[in-house]
Batch of 2 targets.
Target 1
Amino acid sequence: MTQPAEVFVSYSREDLPRVSELVARLREAGVSLWIDQGGIDAATLWSEQIVNALEGAKALLLMVSEAAVQSHNVAKEVVLVSERKGHILPVHLEPTVIPTALKYPLAGIQHVEYYRDPRAGQQAILRALERIGVRTMATAPAVPRPAAAPADAPAAPSAASSERGALAVMPFDNISPDQETDYFSDGLTEELIARLSLVSEIELISRWATKQMKDRKADARALGAELGARYIVGGSVRRFQDSVRITVQLVDTQTNRQLWGTTYKGKLDDIFDIQEQVAQQIVEALKLKLSFAEKISLTKRQTGNVQAYDLYLRGLDYMYRMTKRSMEYAIQLFEKAIELDPRYAAAYAACSSACGQMYQYFSRDEEHRNRAQELSFKALMYDGNLPEAYTAMGLSYFLWDKLDEAGASSRKAVELNPDDFVAHWTLGRIQFTNGELEEAYREFQRVIELKPTFFTGYLDFAMTCERLERLAESRAARARLMELIPTYLLQNPDDSRARVIYAVSLSEVQRTDEALKETAKALELSPDDPLILYNCACVYARLGQTRRALDTLLKSGTAPVNPGWMANDPDLASLRNEPDFVKILENARH
């Protein structure tokens, strides 16, 4: 009896040439695949053969493209596999926004961006398939030897020691009496991820993917399937005054077996020793081999001052809240950390980023722009391989309209840390400014994949889609933005930046009264802020109030955005042929 294929390939007929090429390569690598060569879309009804192939497969290989996500049959296949809790591996053939109908069954599932690097993408597919038990040439049983090995030959490594798989570091639970210490448990998670990312043999799941699972209660096997992780590190942190207790465990998600676990107790001063021990013992439990440089990197400390480290973690917590007040607090905390340790590169980089965000969104004080650049240079002076330092420098150069330098710094940051959403965001803004819209589209898409709650990313993505005439994607991004901002504004009612972004989104769907109401609130909160005035002009332009838009744009001056951004901004499309707008743009370019 013929064994069913282990992998079912779901795709759109329009993608058949490139899908066939990938399928051929996977078959060469020993993967057993089932594919309808006629194209699923060509069938008027699902055949019994297709249903049987789906039910017999260990995994659904979903070839994601603009055509595929619009296919009813592809959607049915995804839903069918999802409902029976089967394995789905999305392989992106091109940058694609996932429509609402597919968002739920694909939520939290790691995907392969095959279009970025086909060779690396193929290897990632094979590794992912191996993790869920699909056979490849790498996992095929070895041919038996005709004779036994000598008695004194070294023992072959066990299956557990030779297998590899992705590792997910889950956010540590804060079980401290003071729940305000969440920043500390989050910081320990980030630090562990940063250390383990230095080990070349470890394939780490994105920190942003695991962050979304922070409050999810599920067993290791379920989390592993959802994240595409073979191993999971998790634990808890209890901090009371100067005492710390940290419990950590490493679990194999396929067997649900704990490979290693321990509890550390000590004083806050012991935290750096504990971090090193945790990282080293995870490496030992996974039986990984480290190079000499990796061994040194694993024990590297950004600072030896515990109080400075604590201030730095508090500062990051405030900075990521992205409000004016929280950014001011963050800068103060980073500055204090630098006072305590004048060689603390990470604190310099964070303070630079916070100053850059202050200038970009909340206060056009030249001191913020100057300090952002100065602090980023100092961060690199103390640590030339710190990803956050290059991210901060990229943002700083962008604020000075030095786009080539900004791009080089941001690309270096992404090279060192592919999951740095701020670096991807800066690259996207550079490309949008330069009119490189396809490139900006990919970067902004990556931003919202990495940071799904970052509403500014949706706004930038929507504008880029609109300029590319991908109107369905633009509407979907703005719809998500409209879901996120009202909740944010309930928590941060004085954030004029968020209010004016909301107003722009309301104007885009012609909810005129609401848009004007939010615009008025933003102006009341920040009547002289050039960036708020610029965005108010965008609202008026969207609503067809041309004269009012031009007057507000003139009042804002040319400082809020650079000319390239203004020229490509779809919110100002109705003004493009207005003589006053042409004059404003010319003045900005000189």
Target 2
Amino acid sequence: MSASRLFRAACTAGLTASILAGPARADVTNRTYVNSNTYDYRITYMTDIDQKRTGLGGNGAMYCVPTACFNLFAYAANHGFPVGGLPPANYMSSGQYGYVTTWLDFIGDLMQTDAQDGTTCCVTDAYQSLVNGSLMKRTTKYITSEYTPGQATATQLACNGWIVSFTYGKYTNVGSLKGYPIYDRGGGHAVTLTRSYRWNGERIIRYRDPNNESSLTTQSGHSNKEYVPTTITGWIDGHGLRNMTKLFTDGGKLRLIDALHAIRPLYGIRFNNSDDAQGGGSIDILDPIPFEGSEDAMVPSIPISPFLSVYDVIIHPDGASGLMITKSIIVGTSSLLRTIDLSTGQMTTIPDAPTNLVRMDWSGKNRIYAFDTSGVLHYLTGEGSPVGTMPTIPTPSALAVDDANNAVWLVSVAQRKLVKLNADTLAVQLLLDIPTSVPMSGDADLIFDPNSGLPWMRTDASTTLYGIKPNSIAAPTIYSANLGTINSISMSDDRLYVGGSSGIKVYKPAVAAPGWTFDGTSPFNGLPGGSRLAMLRNSDNYDPKLHSGPQWQNLTTEELAEPSPDVLDCFADANDDGTVDAADLSILLGAWGGTDDVGDLNQDGTVDAADLAALLGAWGTCPR
């Protein structure tokens, strides 16, 4: 039985037989992402909390962002991940109403939500305070000149095991440039994704809208807003010419998706046979604790052609795919940067990326940093388009991104140098000679530990991991950690993952001094390691100069003006065709006696007579 199933009893206690009064559980029934034009995602039983309530400033009129976040936290709690200590419960029930209000007030305080202006500055800070465990990761992505959130990007995350809330902005056409309209933002609204579909020209999106005015003292039932989105192209509020997802238009004002917030249990990827003279091998997904319903969101193993050698593998900045540097074994060919679709295994060469790359790392700001065989460091967008380059020290061996300090670290084995660069300009900020007491030869790995603030490195010369602390007027201080055989290392915020001869071992920062202590509680211990290992990290691209101020205030109730009526959940409609009929009955009977989510309408862990009764009770056209 999965860990999340163990929470069923607590979530279902005291529930009525009514489907709409069911527990605040989630059920991923559709999960297919082919590309940005073809996808199908549906999640039911997602919590649908109302923001409008007594006990909040302004009766919660500006609390859409804390509420959309709470929907994700409640889902996580009911699947075995108590974000911020939130316990599992049916948060849609009347008995939880006051407790939910207290939580919304607490999250609002962390986000500095204002009763008049809403949430304009501190979403990332609140996520950092609450989603800060070693096994739960977060991403907050805003529109920038290097990243465009939209229906496709939200759906790709969701199909790869994330749960997603998004924000849409209200945009006004203020002119034109080079034949395209110019749009300025004037406030926004946060919602939670439940359905996203694009197939053969048909396109829909549904979301939980927290703005419900039916009562300030009671919780309304599960419902959605539903739209047929389109794509528009325009100059977006200082971020350049972008293709944006338009949800609807009201009074000439466009509502465009421009930010995403998502959480997911930790996962990683590994590769064996890297840098060998012969090609082949496989990229394997390490995902031991996914949300229930997303157990098979990613393929377990992706075979690599024997005609390809893999130089490096990392997780893509989008958090939903991978990146690798590959080279044909044919003499005279160049290495190429490729994306890896972790849900299908498909590999695609990035045509705009530079060739002859050797090693790389990713930034939470949706950037890629990589150096080539000539020792040139490349700064790329998440899509692989070049932004800047800089010749580095001779023969760089490894690199690591330090998001907290907006820096990139490089180590050179041959030159015994450690370099810190500005992540925006690639200008050198620090150049250190590594003392001869540190043995160095062959290949190297480098990670940055945000806890100690130190880069840590290993080379083929030793099994010891070395932390290097710069000093202003003296030689750097060296810390050492002997962790046994080290074939690969990766850092995931507050844990170090080491691939060795006995599989992966997980370490947490030592308390007394910079160093590492074995963490025997991690479910990743003992999983197979490899010569390349990459673990998911928290990420955000929030920039206060771009994503704060009056234009990022929340919309008032009058400004929202959503034209879509509330579309009630129809949990028994398994194929989502708008009718509970024989097709849905067939799906339920096919899952009879099982413990999977499909067919388990009352979410008690088993498909049985109670679910059949619920389906028959909902027979016919779904309520709209």
